[in-house]
Write a structure and sequence with these properties.
Shape: elongated
Strand order of the largest sheet: 1-2-4-3
Number of helices: 5
Structural class: alpha/beta
Number of domains: 2
Radius of gyration: 21 Å
Number of strands: 4
Strand content: 5-15%
Length: about 140
C-alpha cells in the first residue's frame, strides 16, 4: 500500500508538471508570431469547389477558423500550377483572384502584406491572419 501512495504521488506530480509545461508552451505559442510558409489551399479550394473562409474541417487540411484556433498569424498561400495545365497563366490568376476574394469577404481578419512594415501594421491592428505576397520582377 505504501508503494501505491508513492506511485500515486509521483504520477500526480508528473501530471501537474506536464500541465504546467503545456500551459507555458501554449502561452509562448500564442504570444509569438507564427508564420506558415506554404499552404496549397487556393488550388485545393478551386479543385474541391470550397472556400477557405468557411469551415472545411472534413474536406481540407486548413481553413480560416482552424488557423485562428491554431494561432497562425501569417500565411504564404501557394499560387502554382504545373506545366501540364491547359492555360497555366489563367489558372495562376484564378488562384490569386480566389485569395483576393477571401480577403475582400473577410477584411477584419485577412490583410495582404507586401513588406515587413505591412506585417507589423497588421499585427498592431490585431488582424490575426495576414498573408504574404512577394513581387516577382519581370
Amino acid at each position: 500500500m505504501k508503494n501505491f501512495y508513492r506511485y500515486f504521488l509521483l504520477l500526480s506530480f508528473l501530471c501537474i508538471a506536464a500541465f504546467s509545461f503545456a500551459q507555458r508552451a501554449k502561452k509562448i505559442h500564442f504570444n509569438a508570431i507564427l508564420i506558415d510558409t506554404h499552404n496549397d489551399i487556393p488550388t485545393t479550394a478551386i479543385d474541391k469547389e470550397v472556400s477557405f473562409d468557411q469551415s472545411l474541417k472534413t474536406k481540407t487540411h486548413s481553413d480560416l477558423q482552424r488557423m485562428a484556433a491554431g494561432g497562425v498569424d501569417a500565411q504564404f498561400f501557394s499560387i502554382w500550377c504545373d506545366g501540364n495545365m491547359k492555360n497555366p497563366y489563367a489558372w495562376a490568376n484564378r488562384e490569386i483572384d480566389t485569395v483576393m476574394a477571401w480577403t475582400n469577404r473577410n477584411p477584419s481578419t485577412m490583410v495582404q502584406a507586401f513588406t515587413t512594415a505591412d506585417i507589423i501594421k497588421a499585427a498592431k491592428q490585431k488582424n490575426w491572419l495576414y498573408y504574404l505576397v512577394w513581387k516577382v520582377a519581370t
